[in-house]
Design goal:
The chain has helices spanning about 5-35, 45-50, 60-90, 105-120, 140-160, 165-190, 195-205, 215-230, 235-240, 245-250, 255-275, 280-295, 300-320, 330-350, and strands spanning about 125, 135. By secondary structure, the protein is an all-alpha fold. Helix 4 (about 105-120) runs parallel beside helix 6. The protein starts with a helix and ends in a 6-residue tail after the last helix.
Length: about 350
């Protein structure tokens, strides 16, 4: 085979991957346009576009700018954060079942956020369903969630460095960590009063209806740089997939790359959980869907997972708030319904993935 044929084959190989990412991005923008038009108030696409330009009816501008647009954009960023974190964790740990949810990191973030709300008084309680918990101090909640995420991350990293653990061992360790933090969360619930208890339980469902422009700004400031970091280090993660010895022989600081990646994944997970509650399975389901579509090359897999994750969570949230309108379902319920069957399938057929 000539060099020309090899080069043509490589270009075809990369073209298919970029076409998948570009096509997913187009679908994402379509979902954004549809998402800002759907809801209890009937607003057409043309009216929504007019409202985005600052014209049209006052009530339409209020609905689009203050309710729907921040929710839609927050759903995209949350999906990007969870999917890119899950994809990077699977590469860093060489564990196809790794994700913030399965490794107990999301449970640790939920415990930390609930601790800040109940014990440290970082949240206030409102009577309406949409505003069950308002975070008066989102920075305190995020810091608390992040610190507890770090504890779970340190345990996972220690297991990854000691004794060459198998993927099954890490998943079982994540289940144990998740159970531990769930027990701590239950203890906090036991100490809460009735109103706090009802509010925090509602918060843990995973609901994007609480999204505000402030939340979006904080998420964007963290998620965009972190996701860019993961994409930039795609080649490095490819080397890690070949084993630590191979990566070190290529001059890659394995321990620093692994620690930095896990800490950044914990940070964006803490942000999403502290603002919106637990949104399960996105970090597990999306990377596997993308991997089966374009392969396991991390240079494209992480970018594809980020774009697909944003579209996936936005689609799930749009369905959750319209399928039984005017009743709005928390998106965490829908993602769990979608993700649990695939998770079981991966456990049964897991030997094909590692």
């Amino acid at each position: 085979m000539t060099d020309h044929h090899l080069l043509a084959g490589y270009h075809g190989y990369t073209r298919r991957k970029w076409l998948f990412i570009a096509g997913t991005a187009v679908v994402l923008f379509v979902f954004i346009a549809v998402g800002i038009t759907l809801g209890t108030a009937d607003i057409s696409i043309s009216e929504a576009f007019t409202a985005l330009l600052g014209r049209g009816e006052h009530w339409q501008r209020q609905i689009i700018w203050q309710i729907r647009l921040p929710r839609v954009l927050a759903a995209v960023l949350a999906g990007v954060a969870l999917a890119s974190a899950g994809s990077s964790m699977q590469s860093i740990l060489r564990n196809p079942l790794g994700s913030p949810f399965t490794l107990g990191i999301a449970s640790a973030a939920a415990f930390g956020a609930a601790f800040a709300v109940i014990v440290l008084g970082a949240g206030s309680v409102h009577s309406s369903a949409r505003d069950a918990v308002i975070l008066n101090n989102p920075y305190l909640v995020t810091i608390s969630a992040f610190l507890w995420c770090l504890i779970a991350t340190v345990v996972i990293l220690m297991l990854a460095r000691l004794g060459r653990p198998t993927p099954e061992t890490l998943v079982l360790a994540g289940i144990a960590l998740g159970s531990l933090f769930s027990a701590g969360f239950t203890a906090l619930e036991y100490m809460a009063d009735e109103v706090q208890l009802a509010s925090v339980i509602f918060w843990t469902f995973g609901d994007l209806g609480k999204a505000t422009w402030r939340d979006f700004g904080i998420l964007a400031a963290a998620v965009l740089p972190v996701t860019s970091y993961f994409i930039w280090h795609g080649w490095t993660y490819n080397a890690l997939d070949g084993g630590d010895e191979l990566a070190r022989s290529m001059g890659i600081p394995v321990d620093r790359i692994r620690t930095t990646g896990m800490v950044l994944a914990s940070l964006v997970t803490a942000l999403v959980v502290s603002f919106f509650g637990i949104i399960g399975f996105v970090g597990l389901v999306v990377p596997h869907i993308v991997r089966r579509s374009i392969g396991g090359d991390e240079r494209y897999l992480i970018a594809g997972s980020a774009v697909f994750g944003g579209a996936f969570l936005l689609m799930a949230d749009t369905v959750a708030r319209t399928v039984i309108s005017p009743l709005v379902l928390p998106v965490g319920i829908l993602t769990s319904f979608l993700g649990a069957p695939l998770f079981i399938y991966l456990l049964v057929k897991g030997r094909r993935y590692w």
